[in-house]
Amino acid sequence: MSTKRVLLLVAITALVIFGYTFRADLVEAVEVMRSVHWGWLLLLIPIMATNFLAHALFFRSALRAIGVTPPPLRRLFGLALAVAFTNVIAPSAGAAGVSLMATTLRKDGVKAGQSTFIQLARYAAVYASYTLLLVVALLALLIGEGATIASIVLVSALVLNILIVTGVGVYLVYDRRAFRWLFSTLQRLVDWVARKFRGGRDLVGVERIERVTDDFFSGVKQIVKDRSYFKQPFWWSLSGNIIEVTSLFVVFIALDFVVNPGAVIVAFAVASGAGILTLIPGDVGIYELAMVATFSLAGVPLAVGISATILFRVISRLIILPFGFFFYNRYINEVTNGTNS
Prior knowledge:
Blueprint (H helix, E strand, L loop, with lengths): L2 H19 L1 H12 L3 H5 L1 H22 L7 H17 L5 H11 L6 H32 L5 H26 L1 H20 L10 H20 L5 H24 L6 H17 L8 H12 L4 H36 L4
Helix pairs in contact: 2-14, 4-5, 4-7, 4-11, 5-6, 5-14, 6-7, 7-8, 7-10, 7-11, 7-12, 8-9, 9-10, 11-12, 11-14, 12-13, 13-14
């Protein structure tokens, strides 16, 4: 049995155990969802569209920051949706999305290393910008009612974790040898696994890693010359995070439940982090359990937390998957047929 199937089986088992243990709360969650105000949930469509626009604007400003002429904004908007779709159907800690972007933007004169750079820069900016949001969350939990000691400790731990990882990331960016060692190690690991399924052929290869590393550091050198170049991409990343958190907050409004904004920020941060690390298709189970558990720690009634999580996940997937598939199919056909949209 493949690793993905084992992980999926583990996730399903965990969900079954959770469902059986908290079956009374699940029944109550169904009752809560029956009273949902669907008009509020319709707002998720323009909110999520704005979120992907923020992603596209990040890509455009990041490409400009490293001295590359970006493709039209509408193309980057479609690419943001296609990347999201790819990361849902083929979860690999974001690697599938990086590959799609590199392949697509190559036709726009963007080197693979430059595409990799802006994708990694986006993940880094999202991660770093959550520091500001988590500080806001901590203040909201301290000021608001219903917050638990556990939730406050969790936020403090997340902020500390982000600061440590950011420090390690900065070190890797400034130390070329450390960066090359890390990615060369990852390349050997990926190719070792790939050779077992590809008839002995590498998936990445040493030459590709060296080429990507050179292109990546040319982008880093450009940013280091003038750090102000990256201010705009950072603010677009922060805007995207705020929009995503807002979409989850709207779900609570639709459920007619007053929730501490700090609880929403923390739950979204924890669930997103758990979702990125899993190899389960669509991060089914892990994301939901992480979000529900965090809501519970923050003092949100379990039935309400379950209802909000299910509604948010189902509706967001219904929005992302069809539009993401459209653009994914479009760009895959473009690469295959040698055309450019």
